[in-house]
Each structure stands twice: as structure tokens, then as C-alpha cells.
């Protein structure tokens, strides 16, 4: 869970939060690709509930790529 930071005039806190979001999104996408985009399997491998995985995907904007 993220906690609000007080504005100290230093943007390093924001940069760290953004880097964390990017890292988490990449982790979820990689795991979903490994599991063939099967959310149940990806959640099991990550050790989290499927609902948590779905929520984090929504928050982070992780979407299954459309077939070409």
C-alpha cells in the first residue's frame, strides 16, 4: 500500500513510486505471459489471490495484447 508523502520539494519519492509501478507492471506482464495469460495460474505462481492480480492489472494498466 502506498502512503502519501509530504511535499519536501524533492521529486525522488515520486520517481521511486513511478519506478515501483513500472517494475510491478513488468513483473505482472511477464508472469501472465509465462502462464499463457491465464490469470488463475499467474496468481498462483505469484502467491496472490486472482482478485488482487486483476485489481493490480487494472490499476497498472496491464492488458493482454490484442492478436494481430
Q: Short description, anyone?
A:
With 68 residues, this protein is mostly helical. The protein is built from 3 helices and no strands.
What does this protein structure show overall?
It is a single chain. This protein is an all-alpha fold. The chain has one domain (13-60): Arc Repressor Mutant, subunit A (Orthogonal Bundle), CATH 1.10.10. 62% of the residues lie in helices and 0% in strands. It is built from three helices and no strands. It has helices at residues 12-34, 39-46, 50-60. The radius of gyration is 14 Å and the shape is globular.
Terminal-residue CA separation: 36 Å
Total of helices: 3
CATH architecture annotation name: Orthogonal Bundle
N-to-C SSE series? HHH
Tell me, what's the shape?
globular
Q: Could you tell me the strand content as a percent range?
A: under 5%
As for the number of domains, it is: 1
Helix coverage percent of residues?
55-70%
- Assign the structural class, choosing from mainly alpha, mainly beta, alpha/beta, alpha+beta, or little secondary structure: mainly alpha
Tags for this entry?
68 residues; mainly alpha; Arc Repressor Mutant, subunit A; 3 helices; 62% helix
Itemize the secondary structure elements and their pairings:
Layout: H1 12-34, H2 39-46, H3 50-60
Helix pairs in contact: 1-2, 1-3, 2-3
Amino acid at each position: 500500500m502506498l502512503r502519501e508523502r509530504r511535499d519536501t520539494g524533492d521529486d525522488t519519492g515520486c520517481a521511486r513510486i513511478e519506478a515501483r509501478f513500472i517494475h510491478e507492471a513488468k513483473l505482472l506482464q511477464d508472469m501472465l505471459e509465462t502462464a499463457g495469460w491465464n490469470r488463475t495460474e499467474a496468481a498462483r505462481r505469484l502467491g496472490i489471490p486472482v482478485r488482487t492480480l486483476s485489481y493490480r492489472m487494472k490499476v497498472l494498466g496491464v492488458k493482454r495484447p490484442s492478436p494481430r
